[in-house]
Amino acid sequence: MKKVFIDTDECIGCRGCVKLCPDVFEYDEEARKSRVKLPEGGDEECIDEAISNCPVECIHWEGVKSNDVVEEPLNAVVTLRNEVSPWLMILQVVPDGWGFPDFAPGQYASLGLSGSAPRCGIAEPENPVAAPDKLIKRAYGISSSSVNREFLEFYVALVPGGALSPRLFNLKIGDRIWLSPKVGGKFTYDESRVPSDSNIVLIAAGSGLGPFMSMLSTHLRLPTTRQITLIHGVRHSWDLGFRSTLLAMQHLRSNFTYMPVVSRPKEEPVPWKGATGHVQDVWQSGAIEKAWNSRPGPENTHVFMCGSPQMSEGMITILQQEGFKEDEKKDPGQIHLEKYW
After folding, report:
1. Whole-angstrom distance, CA of residue 55 vs CA of residue 339
2. What's the pTM value of the predicted model, to 2 decimals?
3. What is the pLDDT of residue 70?
4. What pLDDT, on the 0 to 100 scale, is given for residue 223?
5. 68 pLDDT exceeds 80?
6. What does CATH list as the number for 4-61?
7. Are 109 and 140 in contact (CB under 8 A)?
8. How far apart are CA 102 and CA 99, in angstroms?
9. Measured between alpha carbons, how far is 316 from 321 in angstroms, rounded to an integer?
10. The Cα angle at residue 105 between residues 101 and 108, in degrees rounded to 5
């Protein structure tokens, strides 16, 4: 009987395998990684799907392991590197000589660089130090539209002591990078699960905005009778990536409302005139009801969330008190959550 295992050093805790095969995999909240709870006897077809969908290829059958050293070629080129702030970056990459597969807005792909790649100047010391011949891979939500085939765009946050992001922040235009040849993730706008007459609230914290930019740039042409609101929470106004684009969307589409919120207004160089606090405060302030002329509720609204666990947990508590429930594969609900962070 075949055994399945997870390389926990590579696992990024996206929980994709847990969603697909909950009888075989489980999530370790303390380690923030998935693990195998049933190494033998699970549904092999389900496990094969989990293996195929793992964005960092860390799930394997015993005796079968993909190569993760630098011999795997850096197969894409950086074509744009736009720093929103010292710790937030819009990165565009183009596959070199191969076609990237179709994807749905909200899905992610993996980026990678070797352990020998230099780290940016504001990075913290690495512990443990990555092996120079190791290909370091991490999953990032795609922020470009699925109808755009010229490049793939990612909204990347710097983790100063992290393994990959300090190396990504040291990249220059023209540098080579590894791009996974497949996509993953179930955090998508699924018309079969979101009624056509439902309003939509997108709630993002920090770089969790990325998947929503892909959704908006692809689906914003939806009927104007549906209200769409984006709440984006950040510490400072200069962390509001894509702000000009979102303001333009709001100007061009009468059914779209952009609500940025800043949690540290006292540190602003000029007075911040928008909402302050956190996304939870915006939800409870009545701002959406004022913009829509109707109150969002589980009978008329679906909520998508992407951001830190603290933000998601806080919002889920509020939403559940108002009658919303999480959307599950066999139990439809109005809360759609990206749990990878």
Report:
1. 14
2. 0.87
3. 47
4. 63
5. no
6. 3.30.70.20
7. yes
8. 9
9. 8
10. 65
Using DSSP bridges, classify how beta strands 301-306 and 199-205 pair: parallel, antiparallel or unpaired.
Answer: parallel
Rounded to the nearest angstrom, the gap between the alpha carbon of residue 75 and the centroid of all alpha carbons in its chain is: 22
- Mean pLDDT for 68-79 is 78
Tell me the pairing of strands 228-234 and 199-205. parallel
Amino acid in position 321: Q
- What fold does the segment set 76-179 form as a domain? Elongation Factor Tu (Ef-tu); domain 3 (2.40.30)
Q: Hey, is 54 helix, strand or coil?
A: coil
> For 204-256, what is each residue's pLDDT tens digit?
999 999 999 999 999 877 667 889 999 999 999 999 999 999 999 999 999 99
Q: CA 133, CA 115: separation in Å to the nearest integer?
A: 6
Which contacts qualify for 243-248: CB closer than 8 Å, 24 or more apart?
245/213, 246/216
pLDDT in tens, 117-166: 999 999 999 988 999 998 999 889 999 999 998 999 999 999 999 999 99
Query: Does the pLDDT at position 309 exceed 70?
Result: yes
3-state secondary structure (DSSP) of residue 340 = coil
Q: What token pair was written down for 299?
A: 């009978």
Q: Which CATH number applies to 199-338? A: 3.40.50.80
Query: Averaged over 105-110, what is the pLDDT?
Result: 92
Q: What pLDDT does 65 receive?
A: 55
All structural domains of the chain with their residue ranges:
4-61, 76-179, 199-338
